[in-house]
Design a protein that fits this description.
It contains eleven helices and six strands. By secondary structure, the protein is α/β, with parallel strands linked by helices. The chain has a single domain, classed as Rossmann fold, CATH 3.40.50.720. The model has no long low-confidence stretch (mean pLDDT 96). Bound molecules: nicotinamide-adenine-dinucleotide.
Length: 273
């Protein structure tokens, strides 16, 4: 299907490099006829890779925004509306960061200042984004906002650390704000719960390789790639999903509903009967 997003205007957070899920989303949105602004933290811009992505997407404009700063968010939203020449139809929130993970602190030995930063950047930022848009009336009717999350919000993955709590908060904000924004402007807000994906943020989690292999062996379809996630985001931004809101949508090859698989059994070095 072509041109699913023709005429739609968007904002895409979080494309750091070509491994980023957001990078793939930007390419697919461009392919489907959307126009959008790219954004990331000022510090991430220094790597400069986002310029290459912008060039591949019809010279999309790039606006720096640290999602933990109100003034950055307000600047991003007002400039985006100006640049795109109207209200926003879709937004991808693809942002996550844990200082405790980065610094090797375990869940039973958290540094609360780090945790505070994690919750602010990885979860509260979705509320900040939505509240800023709500007050500025920046999203068009039937607009769609998607934030990326992980199943550690529902089940324990010990090394996912305080990010699990951040994701639980993120999913709750999507539901709560989804109600208010749906009532006022018919704006839809959902989270997509993605398979483990080899990106900068993903690979930073201790034991990533092991749980990547485990998830792949448990899921009947295998792990969902970043590219497949991008396809799902396009569907969620399109009018084809217009009655879906306030949901946490698993995009995981069936992982979340599978209890046992012989592939996992064999992976652990056992012999199936
Ligand atoms: N990789 C996985 O296994 C996986 C699985 C499920 C969900 N997710 C989620 O997908 C999203 C995207 O992550 P990814 O895997 O593509 O990794 P990534 O490292 O490519 O993307 C994370 C992005 O967050 C940005 N960021 C961090 N702090 C920021 C700040 N203060 N302001 C603005 N941006 C900031 C980074 O610059 C980066 O672009 C995250 O929410 C992540 O938790 C990832």
């Amino acid at each position: 299907m072509n041109n699913l997003l023709k005429g739609k205007k968007g904002i895409i957070f979080g494309a750091l490099n070509d491994k980023s899920i957001a990078w793939q989303v930007a390419l697919k949105c461009h392919e489907q006829g959307a126009q959008f602004v790219l954004t990331n933290a000022p510090i991430a811009m220094r790597m400069g890779e986002i310029n290459n992505l912008a060039a591949m997407c019809n010279n999309a404009q790039i606006i720096p925004c640290d999602v933990s700063k109100n003034e950055d968010m307000e600047n991003l939203i007002s400039k985006s509306v100006e640049i795109l020449g109207g209200k926003i139809d879709f937004i991808l929130h693809s942002v996550g960061m844990s200082l405790n993970i980065r610094k090797g602190r375990t869940y039973t030995d958290l540094d609360y200042k780090f945790s505070h930063e994690t919750y602010d950047i990885s979860a509260m930022s979705l509320h900040r984004l939505l509240q800023t848009c709500y007050k500025m009336e920046a999203i068009s009717e039937w607009g769609s906002v998607v934030a990326l999350t992980y199943i550690a919000a529902q089940r324990v993955f010990p090394d996912y650390n305080e990010m699990a709590d951040a994701k639980a908060l993120l999913e709750s904000i999507a539901r709560s704000f989804g109600y208010h924004y749906g009532k006022r402007d018919k704006v839809r807000i959902n989270t997509i719960s993605q398979s483990p994906t080899p990106t900068t943020a993903g690979s930073g989690v201790k034991g990533f390789g092991d749980f990547f292999d485990y998830a792949s062996a448990l899921s009947p379809l295998g792990n969902a790639s970043a590219e497949a996630c991008a396809d799902y985001c396009v569907l969620m931004f399109s009018d084809l999903s217009r009655m879906v809101t306030m949901q946490n949508l698993f995009h995981d090859g069936g992982f979340s509903n599978t209890g046992f698989s012989y592939d996992v059994f064999n992976l652990l070095g056992n012999k199936a009967e």
